[in-house]
Specification:
Largest interface: A-B, 26 and 29 residues
Order of helices and strands of chain B: HHHHHHHHHHH
Helix content of chain B: 55-70%
Radius of gyration of chain A: 17 Å
Number of strands of chain B: 0
Structural class of chain B: mainly alpha
Largest sheet of chain A: 4 strands, mixed
Number of domains of chain A: 2
Shape of chain A: elongated
CATH class of the largest domain in chain A: Alpha Beta
Structural class of chain A: alpha/beta
Number of helices of chain B: 11
Oligomer: heterodimer
CATH superfamily of the largest domain in chain A: Fe-S cluster assembly (FSCA)
CATH topology of chain B: Ferritin
Number of strands of chain A: 7
Number of helices of chain A: 3
Number of domains of chain B: 1
Shape of chain B: globular
């Protein structure tokens, strides 16, 4: 069969992030390019955080999933020209995050400011009567907030430039 | 000295600072005064070591350097180029927080400038790291501000930590004349003196807002030597501990 780029993207939608299993590598905006070459399929990706410990694991998952779905040799490489930022998330990713109980990142408006972390909407009750408890959480991409309205501590996917 | 030699000197110093500060941050894992702080220093450790790794990899891929792991763990003490500031033990929380505050603002300024470097591989990395370090300075600013308002002992400890840290922090900007002359002329970065002035401007304002007196630069002796390979008594024991597992089997695949 002839593999098209859209076949590759469709297969990539099935590769989930190991730390946030409701988001695929497409949802997260981690893929910067795909191509079909004589020797097989090539995928270029970028990690969300430079110290992301899951990068090799994700590369391996992409390779395995695509080789199975497309029955061809797959090369996954880190794109050193591009850098990830949280505005790269695909439409729909924010809703999936919220339903998973993590407040989605605010869209950044040019240079980011500390104020962007204030009044992050609670994913449980939508109240903005919240405060930042710590800019660091259970993974590098998450911050911890407290909701004064419903009393829940919740995690927030940090806006990152 | 060639341009590549000068670049390698600068990148090694930056990476070694991040690696050693990252290791110190990791020493708070399990010992932080409250859980959020334990997590914060552990997360910052992970970030810093990741930043060091990215710089070591740049040395390898763009400048013909060694394997990043071997370079990070197998060098002799004198071949490390970190500043004395990051070598010092964590001490009490006031010292750790003040070092974190002064060091991370220095890094934020350095990466902000490197976004416009003539050395192309640095530009995307600097953009990325600057965004990550924003959360480090956000954390530091919040604690410095709050502890300075938290009563007499708390304020006195923060001022005392600042007095101790400031001469050490100036060592971040230790000049490396021969390499710097090339790097500035080539547009790689603005040079240590200019970075230091931008840093002093920034922390002066933050300290003033917290009610802290920044010591006068001409009244202190900067802790220089690290960039030339002369280190404090604290580095060698740190290196022994940090590299112990790696050295037990350097060929192991993890």
């Amino acid at each position: 069969m002839t593999i098209s780029e859209s076949d590759i993207y469709k297969a990539l939608e099935q590769v989930m992030d190991p730390e946030i299993p409701v988001l695929s590598v497409i949802d997260l905006g981690m893929i910067t390019g795909v191509s079909v070459e004589e020797a097989g399929v090539r995928v270029k990706m970028i990690p969300t955080f430079s110290a992301c410990p899951a990068v090799d694991y994700i590369k391996q998952n992409i390779r395995t999933a695509l080789e199975k779905a497309l029955d061809t040799k797959v090369t996954v490489e880190i794109d050193r020209e591009a850098t990830w930022n949280s505005d790269r998330m695909a439409a729909g990713a924010h809703e999936k995050l919220k339903n998973f109980g993590i407040a989605p990142p605010q869209m950044r408006q040019g240079e980011e400011h500390a104020e962007i972390e204030l009044h992050t909407a609670c994913p449980h009750c939508d109240s903005e009567n919240t405060y930042l408890r710590s800019p660091f959480g259970s993974t590098l991409c998450r911050a911890i907030h407290y909701c004064r309205n419903c009393g829940y501590v919740f995690e927030h996917f940090k806006p990152l430039g | 000295m060639t341009k590549n030699d000068a670049l390698a000197r600068m990148l090694t110093a930056m990476a070694d600072d991040a690696l050693i500060q990252g290791h110190r941050n990791s020493e708070w894992t399990g010992l932080g005064p409250i859980m959020e702080e334990d997590i914060a220093f552990s997360s910052m450790a992970q970030d810093k070591i990741g930043h060091a790794w990215a710089l070591y990899r740049m040395l390898q891929e763009d400048l013909g350097g060694q394997d990043p792991d071997a370079f990070a763990f197998l060098r002799n003490e004198k071949d490390y180029k970190c500043c004395h500031f990051v070598e010092h033990p964590n001490g009490e929380y006031d010292f750790s927080l003040m070092r974190h505050f002064l060091f991370d603002h220095a890094e934020a300024i350095r990466y902000q400038q490197l976004r416009n470097s003539s050395f192309a591989p640095l530009r995307p990395l600097a953009e990325k790291l600057k965004g990550e370090i924003k959360y480090h300075t956000l954390h530091a600013n919040a604690w410095i501000t709050q502890l300075c308002r938290a009563g007499e002992e708390s304020y006195a400890r923060m001022q005392s930590a600042l007095n101790t840290c400031f001469p050490l922090a100036l060592g971040i900007f230790e000049p490396d004349e021969a390499a710097e002359a090339i790097l500035v002329a080539e547009g790689v970065y603005p040079g240590e003196k200019q970075l230091k002035e931008m840093w002093v401007d920034r922390i002066y304002n933050l300290c003033a807002a917290a009610g802290l007196n920044l010591p006068a630069e001409d009244g202190v002796t900067p802790a220089y030597g690290g960039r030339k390979g002369y280190h404090t008594e604290y580095l060698q024991p740190l290196l022994e501990e940090m590299g112990a597992v790696f050295r037990s089997d350097p060929q192991a695949i993890w």
